[in-house]
Amino acid sequence: MSQLTEQPAEGPVPTSADVARLAGVSRATVSYVLNNNTAVRISDPTRRRVREAATELGYVPHAAARSLRAGHSRMVLLPTAHLPSTPLHHRFLHGLESGLRRLDYTVVQYGSIGLDPDDAARAWAELRPVAVIAPGSVPLAPQGIAVLRRSGAKAVITLGPQPVPGAHALITDQREVGASAVRHLLERGRHRIGVVMPAEAGPALFAGPRLAGARRAAAAGRARVEELPLHYTEESAAALAARWSTLGLDAVFAYDDAYAMLLMRALQDAGIQVPEDTAVVGADDSMLGRLLRPRLSSVRMELATVQPLADLVDRLVRHPGTEPERHDLLRARTVHRESS
Amino acid sequence: MSQLTEQPAEGPVPTSADVARLAGVSRATVSYVLNNNTAVRISDPTRRRVREAATELGYVPHAAARSLRAGHSRMVLLPTAHLPSTPLHHRFLHGLESGLRRLDYTVVQYGSIGLDPDDAARAWAELRPVAVIAPGSVPLAPQGIAVLRRSGAKAVITLGPQPVPGAHALITDQREVGASAVRHLLERGRHRIGVVMPAEAGPALFAGPRLAGARRAAAAGRARVEELPLHYTEESAAALAARWSTLGLDAVFAYDDAYAMLLMRALQDAGIQVPEDTAVVGADDSMLGRLLRPRLSSVRMELATVQPLADLVDRLVRHPGTEPERHDLLRARTVHRESS
DNA sequence: TTGAAAGCGTTACCAA
DNA sequence: TTGGTAACGCTTTCAA
């Protein structure tokens, strides 16, 4: 048929038994050598023979067999929801991942969008991860946590604005973002503050807490806060801008820089002066904001450094059964530019 | 110590033997029932007893044991480089993933940034994936392909602008992006065309091919193309804008919308009129471009629909040893707005 | 210093 | 219709 011969022959996958045969030793010896087992002394010539045999055959150990025998894996599972995310988020994930790799964990992302929460937890559990770090964008109920723990996960950790009962929590408290923006606006003398609420599903997760933080800061400063639902479309922005004067607002916190740009453009097109008539504050402190005119004031966020976090995960894995811990990751401060 | 008792007891993980014991049947029967094995008839009462026992124990099958026994897994490994990517890219990945899930594959992403190419391939091979789909941002050499094939991967597929010898290739031919932009500019009567070359490592992968496509289209239209290295900073953009008049260009293709915005802003700040003095074209057709003034002309890209792609992967897995195939995924056309 | 053998959780073959 | 058993690849204990 289409069984054309290729360079890497369609042969059977080499096992440690093949290596042993070629090196003229037992499988045990192969295991000792390749795992640098110090508890047992192997002669240097033997070591060399084993190594050479392994290389010659292109032997790669079988992770499944290994963890089956060991009774546990070193896989850390990171369910993902594939939301386009910010550079900050990317740096964080990458840092966490390489931190864990340094501790000899295998980090694996498992796309879980559109799965029923229970199915998802079961699917993760089948892989018998030693730890699961679930972002808030992925549904994880106490039910799912129980399944994971029963299947041997030593640590179940959530990552997001909300903790989940029974799991450890790395908290990115988005309320601080909204609060920082509103405090900034209060300092600039604004008291009637709109807060853009993205209608899209992805941002919705963060939008609620940001609004709550904005409300809290506003209450402390005798300011008024008004929710402003907005789709990420020009039409929606234009519609909002058209009724802007009826809202009686002198400032707006626009969820993030992208929504801020969308709204600011619509406001300007509708003849509303920024910042004179209305101050605008975004969030993410992206390059985008610096390129707008007026330059966009924006909430800058910083996440905790990651090596300590990887160490934390490691500690939780080694001491399962500790009370759920909470760790606050997010710091926010507003960078003042021209739009406010 | 810190061994506080928790709700999900620290007990042993339930196995199919436990389910069998509780249901009063053999392990084989459990396997038949839970896998809906049709080759074997099991009485309904037995089925029910087994199912109930499994639920009661919270039994989840052990994927490693299963694939060890089966001699193969259904894992598709997707090495990732964690570049912040476009919504288009996200939609594509998510679609491919759910398409493969529908075909009963387990899709897993493996962050591989900063790994030596050979180490990376070995690490992937340890998981014994049935297929590997490696984006161009992840280094994969013929050496690595051989390791993967030897370890049982039925299909090794690259995804990006360049094919790799020995692997199947899903090609996103970025040359077409540059060519489309330049053809558009030629139609608008421009003949001295700058092409922005991002100095950052991430975009560099796409920048070369886009430039090559631009050159090809320019040659066909007797136009001149000039490379313009640019860092993604305001300073770099300002520096480029400052020497703009000495370049004698009447148009620029700016790699993507973000770089286009950066450059367009710098040009405007330097008093250069867009599009009168210089036409600007971006790429990605993002919301960003529609919000700029003048509105940004941009190359819109479309990727092939994904279910056929998932089917393709499935076919390659079922017919290993077929000649490396190439499939072209990318379509590009330029959307004309005000900046050109 | 090395080897033989058991066992991890599954599934598939063959008997009963 | 159901059960016993062997085997997948690996590590580790015990014996030589």
From TrEMBL, chains A, B:
Domain HTH lacI-type positions: 14-70
Ranges in coiled-coil conformation: none
Molecular function GO labels: DNA binding
CDD domains: HTH_LacI, PBP1_LacI_sugar_binding-like
Entry keywords, A to Z: DNA-binding
Keyword Ribonucleoprotein on entry: no
InterPro entries in the record: HTH_LacI (IPR000843), LacI/GalR-like_sensor (IPR046335)
PROSITE patterns for this protein: HTH_LACI_2
Protein name: LacI family DNA-binding transcriptional regulator
Organism of provenance: Streptomyces poriferorum
